[in-house]
Design brief:
The chain is an alpha/beta fold. Helix content is 46%, strand content 10%. Helix 2 crosses helix 3 and helix 3 packs antiparallel against helix 4. Pfam families: Esterase.
Amino acid sequence: MPDIALLDGVVPTLLPVSALTGLVWLLVHTRPRPITACLVAAAAVTATAAWLATDVWLLFPDRLEPRTYCSIGVAVLAALLALAGRRALGALVALLVIAACANRINADFAAYPTLRSVFEPHAPNEIAFRDVRPAPAAQLDPGPLEQTWQPPPGLPATGRITRTRIPGTESGFQARPAEIYLPPAYFAVPRPRLPVLVLLSGQPGSPDDWLTSGNLVTTMDGFAARHHGLAPVVVVADGTGGTWKNPLCADTGRARAATYLSVDVPAWIHTHLTVAEEARGWAIAGSSYGGTCAIQPALARPEVYPTFLGMSAESQPSLGDPERTLGEGFDGDTAAFARADPLALLRARSYPDTAGVVSVGTAADDTVPEAKKISAALRAAGVRVRFLEVPGGHDWTVWSGVLEQVLPWLAERSGVVGSS
């Protein structure tokens, strides 16, 4: 599959121009009466789809931009005009318009940087989990790993990606396979006990989003190359159980997602990977829904995750409004909601040993107030929190950039490198 850039360069420049030309062609070659019907139908289909997705099915916890709906509407219009015209060429032109609209939506979230990432989402350096060889843990002196561990000759230059299902032994949570990044140092014999970063995607989404859209491998390999092959082991866990599911990162009748992330995932990692045994070597991070979900277990179980990174996080789990969240998400159980609500948890206790970063894109109008709200509450409860605003919106360009920016701090706090 060619590695054609979709977010910059020739494609996002020429595709809209070609699509506009194609849309005009479709309009010119369709009779007036069908055009009117197609316009009305496209508007109705788009409005209905938006209502079902956001108000009925709750597919998107965050508000979509008006231009996203416009792109959907234009794509529907092109398809209807092609059907009305009944021309083979019209179908091809409509496909061009639809492709341009799809890439416009893609650009809103920076989800697929290249054509290859759409059809070949997985890293070329994958290894089957069964082929990850066990090795004894190196006996090292106390202190940052970079100062106490010497890389052996022949250490791989890059890490490897593997995947496996982490069972919900305690929670019963039905999770999709986790994506796991193992840095070069993990393939040494003996190997150092590396810190762990549990990473979460948004909703809708899946664990491999961090590979496809989040630039995870490049970010981690770049850090490892500067630190003798050392970097955290990254476990991109499934925090939702499905692309469109929203378990609110809580233990509810929907699913026991909180127990899965705070009990099942850490237990499996301790059993199957050579990683840090002490909590100081563990962190949890996520973007959008995953950003909120990173903060929740960090506050509910600070002895498991004393470090967190919440990217574009909200202050509370939500299904759109408080009444619906409590009624549909928690069956009206206010105590269950409080156990999952960061603001309630922060009012109930202090967190002197917890530290984190809350980040947000400055153009994400809905998310900036939420990020500021949770940052203030964290600070009031004694959490050492850094609030980070970066240029951009609610998209993968922001999240991948923030992870790269914050990674040195995560590595220092988890014991990879010393203080600078």
